[in-house]
Amino acid sequence: MEKIIDSNLIEKLVNKGQIPTKGEVLQILERAKVLKGIGLEDTALLMRAGSAGICLDDIYKAAGEVKRKSFGRRIVLFAPLYLTSDCINNCLYCGFRKDNIEAERNSLSVEDAVREASFLEGIGFNRLLLVAGESPKSSSIDKIVEIVRAIYDNTGIRIIHVNAAPMPVDKLKLLKSSGVGVFQVFQETYHEKTYAKMHTTGPKSNYQKRLSALDMAMEAGFDDVGVGALLGLYDWQYEVLALIAHARHLFDKFGAWPHTISVPRLQPTVGSPLTSAPYPVSDEEFKLIVALYRLAVPTAGVVVTTREPASLRDELLPIGVSQISAGSRTDPGGYSQDGERFDASQFQTSDHRSLEEMVEYIASTGHLPSLCTSCYRVGRTGKDFTETVSHEEMERYCLPNALLTLKEFVIDHANGSAAICNEVIEKNVASIPDEKLKKATVAKLKEIDAGKRDLYF
Ligand code: SAM
Ligand code: SF4
Question: Are residues 141 and 261 in the same domain?
């Protein structure tokens, strides 16, 4: 079998112990700024330097610079849509696990899912991530496909991504053909022994099968896939290097870096035998992890969800994060109901700001809130996406598309945030360096004012 992760090499790099000099760190950061990624050795050196407090500000600054070169100032916003809390697996950390007798279970029908999607569309989201426990009954591939099609047919949602269990190639092809953009499978932990301890029964207990899930997705025609390690299960330094090794494997094999790197950190949940993280990750470490992912895989969307507190998410904006969720519910059906139902949730969320509050906050920091979905729809995906970003050509799409979707948001959904959003739009239009592009953007903004929707470059 093909070796995706060389655990001996990663262990060696974690334990090597050599702390680089300031000069060495600055050299690596210069190499990272050409947007071709940095290797495991260099990442390990930055990790060690950052952990020892050496050049930490330089690392953050470089990560921010790499993010700006890759995607400009835009921060993409999305919402998760949970389909079911039924699950045949027993992941010790998860509220949905099979043996959790305290869980209040709920599964959405196709109509329920469309209702939830319409609610999210109604507050301004264009992009959804469908999330599901693994259940042959409640989240069979055919049912997910039916839901995807029904949401596209009955709502204005523009792109749907999926985070679900690994699937065989024929099912992945079916899922892709329903119009799904990114297929995400988190490895949770790349450390095989820890993986075995955390995933005791069910199909997810097969480490290798999970590790090869994204190769299969790429082979089935998904040119965009998403990786993630659940922080807190094992030594974060091992996880970060292993995840980057996984990303490099996909790049070497398919010519495209993973489209997203999610950064989930273990949160409390009802009925979990894991009452605290076996390997806690501090906020300072979390920030360094985000910066390292950004430097090592510059073209990836680095995703931080509402699992994290507002203050930490705010601090991550200038150091590499590029996609965030807002107003999330992790209890299936939660958007159509009042009040968070912890017993029915996968885990507890922390940042409860609404989409509009997030848009307003992002705009106030000089970043650019974006509800854009253009790349998936014009086919700027996979290898093409990777190359466009690494040639520093993506901002000419990200910037105007963020402005067009922000304009739609102001007209259709904004209450208190219109003034600051309009100010940001005006300022950013003026900053478009290419006069032709600036003119085309102004023309499209006028069309939106006149009632047209869904315009993009
Ligand atoms: N059931 C599928 C699976 O496990 O691949 C779909 C995804 S699961 C519903 C979404 C992700 O939530 C998991 O991959 C895991 O990383 C994360 N997760 C599970 N329990 C968590 C917890 N207690 N805190 C934070 N994240 C958690
Ligand atoms: Fe099921 Fe996924 Fe939760 Fe594991 S993480 S118990 S597979 S929903």
Answer: yes
Q: What is the mean pLDDT of each run of 10 residues along the chain (457 residues)?
A: 90 91 97 96 97 97 97 97 97 95 94 98 98 96 97 98 96 97 98 98 97 97 97 98 98 97 95 92 98 98 97 98 97 86 85 97 97 94 92 93 98 96 97 96 98 97
Question: Which residue lies with its CA nearest to atom 7 of ligand 2?
Answer: 89
In a domain, 381, yes or no: no
Distance CA 42, CA 426 (A): 41
What is the CB < 6 Å shell around ligand 1? 93-94, 131-134, 163-165, 185-186, 188, 230, 264, 266-267, 269, 307, 346-347
Mapping DSSP to helix (H, G, I), strand (E, B) and coil, where does residue 384 land? helix
- 269 phi-psi bin (left φ>0, alpha ψ -120 to 50, beta other): beta
Report how far residue 355's alpha carbon sits from residue 450's, in angstroms, rounded to the nearest whole number: 24
Whether 38 is in a domain gets the answer no
Give the ligand 1 atom nearest the CA of 87.
1
Mutate to test the pocket of ligand 1, among 86, 163, 190, 272 (most ligand atoms within 8 A of CB): 163
Number of domains in the chain: 2
User: How far is residue 115's CA from residue 177's CA, in Å, rounded to a whole number?
Assistant: 23
- From 105, 230, 275, 328, the mutation candidate for ligand 1 (largest count of ligand atoms within 8 A of CB) is 230
Instruction: Say whether pTM exceeds 0.90.
Output: yes
Q: Which of 241, 247, 262 is nearest to 306 (CA)?
A: 262
CATH number, domain with residue 313: 3.20.20.70
* Nearest ligand to residue 349 Cα: 1
Same-domain check for residues 318 and 423? no
Q: Does residue 249 sit in the same domain as residue 342? A: yes
Q: State the residue range of the domain holding 398.
A: 393-446
Mutation pick for ligand 2 pocket among 204, 266, 345 (CB with most ligand atoms within 8 Å): 204
Q: Are residues 402 and 324 part of one domain?
A: no
Between CA 34 and CA 249 the distance in angstroms is 20
Question: Domain check: are 418 and 302 in the same one?
Answer: no
Please name which ligand lies nearest the alpha carbon of 269.
1
Ligand 2 lined by 94 (C-beta under 6 Å): yes
Measured from the Cα of 87, ligand 2's closest atom is 1
**Does 4 map to a domain?**
no
- 222 shares its domain with 104: yes
CA distance 196 to 255: 31
- Ligand nearest the Cα atom of residue 210: 1
